[in-house]
């Protein structure tokens, strides 16, 4: 139960993915800079765990998501209740009702034969996972959660960022806040705290001297608090600022994995851009392999697929439009010219998942006949996002031009799928945005406002990067009400 | 301008800041070669003046400045208090005035070495004040008190005040006389009447040298012994003031009838009591 709460601190939605032998919960925060996933082993974490699979060799998947507040409201209070005597929970049963209802049934069997039943609405969507390449992470350390928790107590609650570094056998955690203040306001700045300690206090320490990465202090604190509550040791992997950092820990059938985007400083962003130019020249043409998989006649052409960010990213891009143009230029021009233009920036994780094959889902057969034709047609096969929010429809398409110019975390819905090779994606950045190409003759349905988003991983047949194998179009929303539409219930 | 010291008495310092933080957000800290002064003068409400000898908090104290070795700082109390809380397991704590490396902003830098050899650095943003800007800050002047009395344990007072505030969080009328009696009453609520009375308290003797007109002419001497002098204060504020019970050894309350209540809070024992004094000024509401 505590796990739910930790995840709930990150994102608005909690996704759930059930398989024969394990259950995974995950969440992505609204600014796409932090991703949390918890895997619960079916046989170790649960007393009984039953997920129907057609055979031993085949593995089904069932994926859905919940509005986080709703899911938490069921479990949060129960967690505290369980500590008090009268209504302590003795058993918790969770069951899924499929038949056209999309309800999750939670039964809590408490002391004194009290039975509490909750019915939660869920939305069947594909789950996306952050892809983190451990091989590329040069820096790694393992430390007791307890120790980190003690360190975190020194930090002021309002401080925003946490810089992690090491030098000469001492590791340092330093908090800082980016907001600029003047005059009397200066006294309202949060405390700036630094905790430095011997790297011998780590269980394992293998990080380069002088590498500074910064993550959100609030996220890190939440992670550390949870790790400590499990009495677990925390493992961190990272490479450079502006690239993601991964924190993992686990205990008794529960594996927690957090991927946080790190903050790059001025200097780091420049080196980053340079690398990107070298590694990833603009890829104006779509990979030919994606084309045959287009099943809908009115799907937008492939080049459009490269242009825009997904609708859910637009608002963020809108606010940072200017600065991104600057970085965009920097990608093309010599880096040195822009030395003064760089500033601290927060990168976002990239989502490059694809609609996973619904045929692998146990629920596909029921859904397909009910699909609204318009949504299917509006979704290009290589689309990265699910059309889940009605508010997306009002997004301004013009902002789609500004895209993909920050470091990304890659996403993959098929990461855990057993029937395909595990994709290996270096966390390098995608091609810069293309100039907007006029839409092809085929009419593009705007009903779903599904801006094809950049296929960030295509690089002309590079096998290593084959994350986005364009598959069947995402079958939009399940036969139920969107969770997002039902939000008013919990606000 | 240079200021560096090691903190000798972390626990007192932390308790002190915790009392102050409940009164105001920002304090004026005046440091010179002899004493440490904290002054809180919020726009409204309680004013607090703290005078401490260097030895009561610090050790290895170094101060130099162009203004005859006086440094005036504006210090945010909440970060200061939070920083000091990191000192719990400290084997050594050093406080110094310096500039932040990133933007040259002045900071009070608290460096703590813990027993486990962890180094914690807390940077408290401060503002350096000019001598001119603090020249006009003075303690308020009050008439000679009508009644002065040593208060009972602030802890017991506070628990009573908290009950009053739960009933009706408005004003509390406080009174004392020269006969060792002290009372508090919930004020301004006609529906409920609650009053607590303490008796057998001590009225300290006046020091003849400190009384200009002579003790025999002092209002507290000329007054009828059993006559109470009343002041009315905000209940919540009074509750916050009483938090100082955590560090006080002795509290003398001076009542200027219908005008003000002045508390002298002594942090040390009687023989050395001028080395650490907190003075609280509470204005009385008019009836």
TrEMBL record, chain A:
GO terms for biological process: cellular response to ionizing radiation; DNA repair; DNA replication checkpoint signaling; mitotic intra-S DNA damage checkpoint signaling. InterPro entries: Rad9/Ddc1. Residues 273-491 are annotated as: Disordered. Residues 291-303, 313-324, 373-384 have a biased composition (Low complexity). Residues 398-409 have a biased composition (Basic and acidic residues). Residues 281-290, 429-442 have a biased composition (Pro residues). GO terms for cellular component: checkpoint clamp complex. It comes from the Eukaryota. Pfam families: Rad9. Residues 340-368 have a biased composition (Polar residues). This is Rad9-domain-containing protein.
TrEMBL record, chain B:
It is found in: Nucleus. SUPFAM superfamilies: DNA clamp. Keywords: Nucleus. The keyword Cell membrane does not apply. GO terms for biological process: double-strand break repair via homologous recombination; meiotic DNA integrity checkpoint signaling; mitotic DNA replication checkpoint signaling; mitotic intra-S DNA damage checkpoint signaling; nucleotide-excision repair; telomere maintenance. Transmembrane segments: none annotated. It comes from the Eukaryota. One of its GO terms (cellular component) is site of double-strand break. It holds the Pfam family Hus1. Its main location: nucleus. InterPro entries: DNA_clamp_sf, HUS1, HUS1/Mec3. Belongs to the HUS1 family. This is Checkpoint protein. It comes from Tuber magnatum.
């Amino acid at each position: 139960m505590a796990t739910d709460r930790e995840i709930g601190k990150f994102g608005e939605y909690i996704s759930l993915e059930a398989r024969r032998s394990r259950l995974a919960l995950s969440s992505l925060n609204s600014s796409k800079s932090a991703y949390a996933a918890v895997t619960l082993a079916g046989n170790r974490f649960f007393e009984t765990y039953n997920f129907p699979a057609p055979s031993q060799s085949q593995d089904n998947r069932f994926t859905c998501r919940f509005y986080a507040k709703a899911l938490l409201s069921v479990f949060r209070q129960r967690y505290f209740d369980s500590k008090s005597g009268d209504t302590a929970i003795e058993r918790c049963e969770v069951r899924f009702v499929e038949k056209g209802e999309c309800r999750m049934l939670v039964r809590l069997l408490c002391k004194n034969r009290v039975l509490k039943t909750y019915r939660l609405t869920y939305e069947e969507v594909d789950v996306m996972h952050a892809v983190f390449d451990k091989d590329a992470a040069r820096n790694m350390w393992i430390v007791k959660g307890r120790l980190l928790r003690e360190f975190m107590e020194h930090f002021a609650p309002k401080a925003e960022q946490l810089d992690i570094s090491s030098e000469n056998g001492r590791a340092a955690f330093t908090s800082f806040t980016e907001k600029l203040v003047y005059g009397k306001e200066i006294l309202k700045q949060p405390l700036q705290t630094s905790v430095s300690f011997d790297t011998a206090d780590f269980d394992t320490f293998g990080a380069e001297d002088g590498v500074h990465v910064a993550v959100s202090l609030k996220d890190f604190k939440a992670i550390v608090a949870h790790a400590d509550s499990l009495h677990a040791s925390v493992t961190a992997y990272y490479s450079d600022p502006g690239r993601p950092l991964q924190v993992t820990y686990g205990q008794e059938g529960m594996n927690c994995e957090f991927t946080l985007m790190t903050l790059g400083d001025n200097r780091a962003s420049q080196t980053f851009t340079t690398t990107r130019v070298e590694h990833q020249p603009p890829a104006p043409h779509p990979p030919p392999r994606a084309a045959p998989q287009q099943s809908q006649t009115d799907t937008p052409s492939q080049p459009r697929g490269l242009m825009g960010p997904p609708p859910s990213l637009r608002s963020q891009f809108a606010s940072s439009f200017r600065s991104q143009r600057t970085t965009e230029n920097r990608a093309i021009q010599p880096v040195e010219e822009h030395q003064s233009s760089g500033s601290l920036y927060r990168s976002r994780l990239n989502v490059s998942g694809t609609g996973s094959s619904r045929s692998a889902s146990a629920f596909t057969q029921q859904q397909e006949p009910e699909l609204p034709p318009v949504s299917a047609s509006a979704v290009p096969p290589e689309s990265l996002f699910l059309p889940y929010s009605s508010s997306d429809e009002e997004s301004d398409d013009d902002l789609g031009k500004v895209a993909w110019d920050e470091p990304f975390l890659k996403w993959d819905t098929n990461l855990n799928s057993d029937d395909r090779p595990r994709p290996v994606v270096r966390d390098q950045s995608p091609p810069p945005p293309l100039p907007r190409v006029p839409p092809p003759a085929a009419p593009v349905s705007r009903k779903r406002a599904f801006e094809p988003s950049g296929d960030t991983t295509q690089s002309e047949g590079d096998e290593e990067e084959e994350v986005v194998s364009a598959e069947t179009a995402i079958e939009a929303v399940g036969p139920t009400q969107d969770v997002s539409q039902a939000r008013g219930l919990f606000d | 301008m240079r200021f560096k010291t090691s903190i000798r008495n972390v626990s007192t310092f932390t308790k002190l800041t915790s009392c102050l933080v409940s009164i105001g957000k920002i304090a004026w800290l005046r440091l010179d070669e002899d004493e440490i002064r904290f002054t809180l003068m919020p726009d409204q409400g309680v004013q607090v003046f703290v005078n401490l000898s260097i030895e009561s908090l610090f050790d290895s104290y170094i101060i130099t400045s162009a203004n005859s070795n006086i440094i005036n700082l504006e210090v945010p109390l909440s970060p200061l208090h939070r920083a000091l809380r990191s000192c719990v397991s400290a084997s050594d704590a050093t406080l110094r005035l310096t500039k932040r490396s990133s933007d040259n902003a002045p900071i009070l830098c608290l460096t703590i070495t813990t027993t486990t050899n962890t180094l914690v650095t807390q940077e408290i943003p401060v503002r350096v004040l000019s001598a001119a800007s603090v020249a006009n800050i003075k303690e308020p002047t009050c008439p000679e008190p009508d009644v002065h009395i040593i208060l009972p344990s602030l802890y017991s007072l506070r628990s009573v005040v908290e009950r009053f505030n739960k009933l009706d969080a408005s004003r509390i009328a406080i009174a004392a006389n020269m006969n060792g009696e002290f009372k508090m009453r919930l004020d301004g609520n006609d529906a409920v009447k609650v009053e607590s009375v303490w008796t057998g308290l001590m009225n300290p003797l006046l020091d003849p040298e400190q009384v200009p007109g002579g003790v025999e002419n002092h209002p507290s001497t000329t007054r009828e012994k059993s006559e109470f002098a009343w002041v009315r204060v905000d209940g919540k504020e009074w509750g916050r003031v009483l938090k100082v019970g955590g560090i006080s050894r002795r509290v003398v309350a001076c009542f200027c009838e219908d005008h003000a209540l002045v508390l002298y809070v002594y942090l040390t024992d009687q023989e050395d009591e001028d080395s650490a004094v907190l003075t609280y000024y509470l204005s009385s509401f008019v009836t």
